[in-house]
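Reposting from the mailing list since nobody answered there.

I have sequence plus structure tokens for a pair of proteins and want to know whether others read the tokens the same way I do. The first protein:
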Amino acid sequence: MGILVVAGCAFVCLLMVVGVALTEVAMQDRRLVACADALAGASVAGAPLSPLYSGQETGINEEVARSRVDVAREELASSTCRVGDGVVVDWVEADRTEVEVAVRARPSVSFVPPAMGRIVVPELTRISSARVRGVSDTP
């Protein structure tokens, strides 16, 4: 009877550990989504608006957008972009009015050793975009 009680307690403890680990991964996934959104927004934040007001086409330079993303990632590394071992920007694509940013991170899980974490814990990847709209565009 004692063995069954110990086995039952061990099983309940295992379920609790798995539940905590899944919650940690889910929370860090939400943080990665917020980070991707913030980086995409930062990439278009300094876009010149004068062509928009004159009715001309605007262009977002991909190199400038990438540099804005890198600066924003460094600034947000201790807050919004604090996910696992750190957020890595995979790519930044820009066209005339829209920028897409892809980020990835491997979340850290409390109960998983770092060496085993690379095997067991999934790498999270998220893509976000931001768009510069003209004065006459509707939201």
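The second protein, same order (residues first, tokens after):
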Amino acid sequence: MGIVLAFTGLIARLYLVPLVFALWGDAGLNAPALHWTQAVLGQVALQFGLALIAFLIVIRASERFRSPSDAGANDLVDTGAALFARRILKRLFWVGVALAVLGLVVQESLQQWQHDLLGAVDVAGNLARDILWLVGAPFEAVAMPLGVMLASGALAVRTLEPEPSAA
């Protein structure tokens, strides 16, 4: 569900306005329904979908802290599995930080990169502009929020989980 919501929100955020303009022209762009549709799908659905994806990844990684059903609810399976889960959560935190930083760099630089490529009239410049539009714009929309959610989710789970006991 998270993937579907994130994909729908990303498509609405990037392509809804150009599609409406192609179909109905300027009259379609002035409709309040377009504004609210893009706001709901492009912001809410995208953020909610990314949150579901990020927190599912973090929850799956933290499941190694929990014991099988025959043990108590707060018992650890074993120290090795708990340490492995802590390492996974640490990696997820740093992946989240890296995605957030990359997302911030792309967010701040994408317009400048597109402007720099506008003057290129050769085939390589057009190809670079197309690649930047097809890869950079979706990455800009997804990387920062997904990174923040991964990092915060991993940090929250690591903070709430008990320390592994030294046996």
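Reply #1 (J.P.):
I read it the same way you do. The chain is about 80% helix and 0% strand.
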